[in-house]
Protein backbone atom coordinates (compact mmCIF):
# COMPACT_ATOMS: atom_id res chain seq x y z
CA UNK A 1 0.00 0.00 0.00
CA UNK A 2 1.36 3.39 -0.98
CA UNK A 3 2.08 5.92 1.74
CA UNK A 4 -0.24 8.49 0.12
CA UNK A 5 -3.30 6.18 -0.05
CA UNK A 6 -5.87 5.77 2.70
CA UNK A 7 -7.95 2.80 3.78
CA UNK A 8 -11.48 3.23 5.08
CA UNK A 9 -12.33 1.10 8.08
CA UNK A 10 -15.49 0.81 10.11
CA UNK A 11 -15.75 1.03 13.83
CA UNK A 12 -16.33 -2.26 15.57
CA UNK A 13 -19.89 -3.15 16.23
CA UNK A 14 -20.65 -2.88 19.94
CA UNK A 15 -21.26 -6.17 21.61
CA UNK A 16 -24.30 -5.65 23.80
CA UNK A 17 -23.87 -8.92 25.58
CA UNK A 18 -20.49 -7.98 26.99
CA UNK A 19 -21.75 -4.64 28.24
CA UNK A 20 -19.00 -2.66 26.47
CA UNK A 21 -19.65 0.78 25.02
CA UNK A 22 -17.55 1.78 22.03
CA UNK A 23 -17.38 5.47 21.10
CA UNK A 24 -16.69 6.64 17.58
CA UNK A 25 -14.21 9.51 17.37
CA UNK A 26 -13.65 11.53 14.25
CA UNK A 27 -9.98 12.41 13.65
CA UNK A 28 -9.07 14.96 11.01
CA UNK A 29 -5.50 15.01 9.68
CA UNK A 30 -4.48 18.03 7.65
CA UNK A 31 -2.34 17.05 4.69
CA UNK A 32 -0.32 19.78 3.01
CA UNK A 33 -0.25 19.44 -0.73
CA UNK A 34 3.22 19.11 -2.16
CA UNK A 35 4.91 18.74 1.23
CA UNK A 36 8.46 17.44 1.20
CA UNK A 37 8.97 13.93 2.40
CA UNK A 38 11.76 14.15 4.92
CA UNK A 39 13.61 16.86 6.87
CA UNK A 40 13.03 20.39 5.66
CA UNK A 41 16.75 21.15 5.53
CA UNK A 42 17.12 18.58 2.75
CA UNK A 43 14.72 20.50 0.51
CA UNK A 44 15.63 24.20 0.58
CA UNK A 45 13.33 26.75 -0.93
CA UNK A 46 14.07 28.61 -4.12
CA UNK A 47 17.24 30.67 -3.89
CA UNK A 48 20.27 31.79 -5.83
CA UNK A 49 23.63 30.23 -6.51
CA UNK A 50 26.86 31.80 -7.65
CA UNK A 51 29.99 30.33 -9.15
CA UNK A 52 33.07 32.25 -8.03
CA UNK A 53 36.34 31.84 -9.87
CA UNK A 54 39.42 33.01 -7.96
CA UNK A 55 42.30 34.21 -10.14
CA UNK A 56 45.24 31.86 -10.20
CA UNK A 57 47.61 34.67 -9.17
CA UNK A 58 45.68 35.31 -5.96
CA UNK A 59 45.58 31.61 -5.15
CA UNK A 60 49.32 31.39 -5.71
CA UNK A 61 49.94 34.33 -3.38
CA UNK A 62 47.76 32.80 -0.66
CA UNK A 63 49.46 29.42 -0.97
CA UNK A 64 52.85 31.12 -0.82
CA UNK A 65 51.91 32.91 2.40
CA UNK A 66 50.59 29.70 3.94
CA UNK A 67 53.78 27.86 3.03
CA UNK A 68 55.93 30.44 4.81
CA UNK A 69 57.10 29.32 8.27
CA UNK A 70 55.39 31.15 11.11
CA UNK A 71 57.59 33.68 12.87
CA UNK A 72 57.74 32.74 16.54
CA UNK A 73 59.46 34.63 19.32
CA UNK A 74 62.72 33.27 20.62
CA UNK A 75 63.76 33.41 24.26
CA UNK A 76 65.18 36.94 24.37
CA UNK A 77 62.38 38.78 22.53
CA UNK A 78 59.71 36.86 24.46
CA UNK A 79 61.44 37.66 27.74
CA UNK A 80 61.83 41.31 26.81
CA UNK A 81 58.09 41.90 26.37
CA UNK A 82 57.20 40.81 29.91
CA UNK A 83 60.62 41.61 31.39
CA UNK A 84 60.25 45.32 30.70
CA UNK A 85 57.29 45.41 33.05
CA UNK A 86 59.29 43.73 35.81
CA UNK A 87 62.45 45.80 35.42
CA UNK A 88 60.53 49.03 34.82
CA UNK A 89 58.45 48.55 37.95
CA UNK A 90 61.61 48.64 40.05
CA UNK A 91 62.09 52.32 39.25
CA UNK A 92 58.67 53.40 40.51
CA UNK A 93 57.88 50.67 43.07
CA UNK A 94 61.05 51.12 45.12
CA UNK A 95 60.01 54.58 46.31
CA UNK A 96 56.59 53.39 47.54
CA UNK A 97 58.14 50.38 49.29
CA UNK A 98 60.69 52.59 51.06
CA UNK A 99 57.89 54.87 52.25
CA UNK A 100 56.17 51.89 53.89
CA UNK A 101 59.02 49.60 54.95
CA UNK A 102 61.89 52.00 55.53
CA UNK A 103 65.12 50.19 56.25
CA UNK A 104 63.38 46.81 55.90
CA UNK A 105 62.64 47.37 52.22
CA UNK A 106 65.06 44.57 51.13
CA UNK A 107 63.15 42.14 53.35
CA UNK A 108 59.80 43.02 51.75
CA UNK A 109 61.23 42.76 48.24
CA UNK A 110 62.89 39.44 49.07
CA UNK A 111 59.56 38.05 50.32
CA UNK A 112 57.87 39.12 47.09
CA UNK A 113 60.62 37.48 45.04
CA UNK A 114 60.14 34.20 46.95
CA UNK A 115 56.36 34.30 46.44
CA UNK A 116 56.72 34.94 42.71
CA UNK A 117 59.28 32.16 42.39
CA UNK A 118 56.93 29.53 43.83
CA UNK A 119 53.95 30.95 41.95
CA UNK A 120 55.92 30.48 38.75
CA UNK A 121 55.50 26.69 38.87
CA UNK A 122 51.73 26.96 39.40
CA UNK A 123 51.35 29.43 36.58
CA UNK A 124 53.49 27.29 34.31
CA UNK A 125 51.34 24.19 34.85
CA UNK A 126 48.09 26.10 34.25
CA UNK A 127 49.22 27.78 31.04
CA UNK A 128 50.92 24.74 29.52
CA UNK A 129 47.80 22.65 30.14
CA UNK A 130 45.90 24.94 27.71
CA UNK A 131 48.63 26.72 25.70
CA UNK A 132 46.47 29.40 24.12
CA UNK A 133 46.67 33.17 24.11
CA UNK A 134 44.53 34.94 26.66
CA UNK A 135 46.32 34.20 29.92
CA UNK A 136 44.06 34.15 32.95
CA UNK A 137 40.95 34.75 30.85
CA UNK A 138 41.54 31.66 28.72
CA UNK A 139 42.36 29.49 31.75
CA UNK A 140 39.19 30.52 33.60
CA UNK A 141 37.07 30.27 30.45
CA UNK A 142 38.00 26.58 30.12
CA UNK A 143 37.66 25.75 33.82
CA UNK A 144 34.90 28.00 35.20
CA UNK A 145 32.01 30.06 33.88
CA UNK A 146 32.05 32.81 31.27
CA UNK A 147 31.16 35.36 33.93
CA UNK A 148 34.22 34.52 36.03
CA UNK A 149 36.42 34.67 32.93
CA UNK A 150 34.94 38.04 31.95
CA UNK A 151 35.63 39.43 35.43
CA UNK A 152 39.23 38.21 35.21
CA UNK A 153 39.59 39.81 31.78
CA UNK A 154 38.29 43.16 33.08
CA UNK A 155 40.66 43.05 36.04
CA UNK A 156 43.57 42.22 33.73
CA UNK A 157 42.74 45.17 31.49
CA UNK A 158 42.55 47.49 34.50
CA UNK A 159 45.88 46.15 35.75
CA UNK A 160 47.64 46.69 32.43
CA UNK A 161 46.15 50.16 31.93
CA UNK A 162 47.06 51.20 35.47
CA UNK A 163 50.59 49.85 35.07
CA UNK A 164 51.04 51.71 31.80
CA UNK A 165 49.76 54.99 33.22
CA UNK A 166 51.88 54.75 36.38
CA UNK A 167 54.99 53.79 34.39
CA UNK A 168 54.52 56.60 31.87
CA UNK A 169 53.82 59.17 34.59
CA UNK A 170 56.86 58.08 36.61
CA UNK A 171 59.11 58.27 33.56
CA UNK A 172 57.86 61.73 32.63
CA UNK A 173 58.35 62.93 36.22
CA UNK A 174 61.94 61.64 36.14
CA UNK A 175 62.52 63.54 32.90
CA UNK A 176 60.85 66.66 34.33
CA UNK A 177 63.55 66.84 37.01
CA UNK A 178 66.10 67.41 34.25
CA UNK A 179 64.05 69.31 31.64
CA UNK A 180 60.98 71.46 32.23
CA UNK A 181 58.20 69.66 30.29
CA UNK A 182 54.38 69.46 30.58
CA UNK A 183 53.60 66.32 32.61
CA UNK A 184 50.12 65.48 31.32
CA UNK A 185 50.79 66.17 27.64
CA UNK A 186 54.05 64.21 27.61
CA UNK A 187 52.43 61.29 29.43
CA UNK A 188 49.62 61.10 26.87
CA UNK A 189 52.11 61.36 24.00
CA UNK A 190 54.22 58.56 25.46
CA UNK A 191 51.21 56.27 25.88
CA UNK A 192 50.06 57.09 22.34
CA UNK A 193 53.49 56.18 20.96
CA UNK A 194 53.43 52.77 22.65
CA UNK A 195 49.84 52.23 21.47
CA UNK A 196 50.98 52.74 17.88
CA UNK A 197 53.87 50.38 18.50
CA UNK A 198 51.45 47.71 19.74
CA UNK A 199 49.34 48.08 16.60
CA UNK A 200 52.33 47.35 14.37
CA UNK A 201 52.51 43.73 15.53
CA UNK A 202 54.13 41.60 18.18
CA UNK A 203 57.13 40.64 16.02
CA UNK A 204 58.14 44.25 15.40
CA UNK A 205 57.12 45.14 18.93
CA UNK A 206 59.46 42.51 20.35
CA UNK A 207 62.48 44.10 18.64
CA UNK A 208 61.79 47.47 20.23
CA UNK A 209 61.01 45.75 23.53
CA UNK A 210 64.37 43.94 23.39
CA UNK A 211 66.21 47.25 22.95
CA UNK A 212 64.34 48.75 25.92
CA UNK A 213 64.96 45.59 27.95
CA UNK A 214 68.72 45.74 27.36
CA UNK A 215 68.66 49.44 28.21
CA UNK A 216 66.91 48.62 31.49
CA UNK A 217 69.56 46.03 32.34
CA UNK A 218 72.39 48.47 31.62
CA UNK A 219 70.77 51.27 33.64
CA UNK A 220 70.04 49.05 36.65
CA UNK A 221 73.56 47.58 36.51
CA UNK A 222 75.09 51.06 36.53
CA UNK A 223 72.76 52.04 39.37
CA UNK A 224 73.76 49.04 41.49
CA UNK A 225 77.47 49.60 40.91
CA UNK A 226 77.17 53.32 41.65
CA UNK A 227 75.26 52.66 44.86
CA UNK A 228 77.83 50.09 45.97
CA UNK A 229 80.72 52.48 45.32
CA UNK A 230 78.92 55.35 47.06
CA UNK A 231 78.12 53.15 50.07
CA UNK A 232 81.74 52.07 50.39
CA UNK A 233 82.97 55.66 50.24
CA UNK A 234 80.31 56.89 52.67
CA UNK A 235 79.65 54.11 55.19
CA UNK A 236 77.99 56.52 57.64
CA UNK A 237 74.93 56.76 55.36
CA UNK A 238 74.21 53.06 55.77
CA UNK A 239 74.69 53.27 59.55
CA UNK A 240 72.36 56.26 59.79
CA UNK A 241 69.71 54.45 57.79
CA UNK A 242 69.93 51.40 60.02
CA UNK A 243 69.55 53.57 63.13
CA UNK A 244 66.55 55.45 61.73
CA UNK A 245 63.05 54.78 63.07
CA UNK A 246 60.43 52.92 61.10
CA UNK A 247 58.13 55.20 59.08
CA UNK A 248 54.57 55.84 60.17
CA UNK A 249 51.90 54.15 58.07
CA UNK A 250 48.58 55.62 56.96
CA UNK A 251 45.97 52.92 57.52
CA UNK A 252 42.42 53.94 56.51
CA UNK A 253 43.11 57.55 57.49
CA UNK A 254 44.74 56.65 60.80
CA UNK A 255 48.47 57.05 61.28
CA UNK A 256 50.02 53.96 62.86
CA UNK A 257 53.34 54.04 64.66
CA UNK A 258 55.96 52.27 62.64
CA UNK A 259 57.47 49.00 63.82
CA UNK A 260 58.99 45.90 62.27
CA UNK A 261 55.59 44.31 61.61
CA UNK A 262 54.04 47.34 59.89
CA UNK A 263 57.21 47.85 57.86
CA UNK A 264 57.27 44.28 56.53
CA UNK A 265 53.49 43.95 56.13
CA UNK A 266 52.77 47.19 54.30
CA UNK A 267 56.07 47.04 52.44
CA UNK A 268 55.17 43.57 51.16
CA UNK A 269 51.79 44.85 49.95
CA UNK A 270 53.33 47.82 48.17
CA UNK A 271 55.95 45.59 46.56
CA UNK A 272 53.35 43.10 45.34
CA UNK A 273 51.44 45.91 43.63
CA UNK A 274 54.55 47.15 41.86
CA UNK A 275 56.67 44.09 41.11
CA UNK A 276 54.49 42.49 38.44
CA UNK A 277 54.74 41.69 34.77
CA UNK A 278 55.69 38.03 34.46
CA UNK A 279 52.02 37.01 34.23
CA UNK A 280 51.67 38.89 30.94
CA UNK A 281 53.83 36.28 29.17
CA UNK A 282 50.85 33.90 29.02
CA UNK A 283 48.93 36.37 26.86
CA UNK A 284 51.15 35.57 23.87
CA UNK A 285 52.13 31.99 24.59
CA UNK A 286 51.10 30.91 21.06
CA UNK A 287 53.55 33.40 19.58
CA UNK A 288 56.51 31.87 21.44
CA UNK A 289 58.69 29.18 19.97
CA UNK A 290 58.52 25.67 21.46
CA UNK A 291 60.41 25.45 24.74
CA UNK A 292 60.50 29.21 25.35
CA UNK A 293 57.64 29.56 27.83
CA UNK A 294 58.53 26.46 29.84
From TrEMBL:
Keywords carried by this UniProt record: Membrane, Transmembrane, Transmembrane helix
Xref: InterPro entries: AA/rel_permease1
Membrane topology classification: Multi-pass membrane protein
Gene3D superfamilies xrefs: Amino acid/polyamine transporter I (1.20.1740.10)
Pfam families (UniProt xref): AA_permease_2
Localization per Swiss-Prot or TrEMBL: Membrane
Domain of life the protein comes from: Eukaryota
Main location as per UniProt: membrane
GO molecular function (one): amino acid transmembrane transporter activity
GO cellular component, one term: membrane
Protein name: Uncharacterized protein
Organism of provenance: Phytophthora cactorum
